[in-house]
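Supplementary Note 3. Input sequence used for the single-chain structure prediction.
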Amino acid sequence: MLQQVKNGIKNVSHKVNELAVRSRCAFESKKAEGYVDSGVKILIAVVIGALLLGGLYALFNTDIMPTVTNRIRSLFNYNGIAYHVGGSN
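The predicted structure, written as discrete structure tokens, is reproduced below.
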């Protein structure tokens, strides 16, 4: 009986140690760290680019990229025919 209790305690102790080692390995793992770093770098690049473009617009007070400006204006000034579905209109 005493031997079974000792074996039970050893088994529990072994399982706790195994869980501690697996937890430590999981916390020290840096697998997904590259995704966060890449996302932050992309976000910083976009913000810096927008600030530079805004600064150029403010500095020169004119269109920096006229073709892009014209295309955006043409998207928002769409005067196409609206088709009415159903009915005789």
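The longest helix spans residues 33-60. The mean pLDDT is 79.
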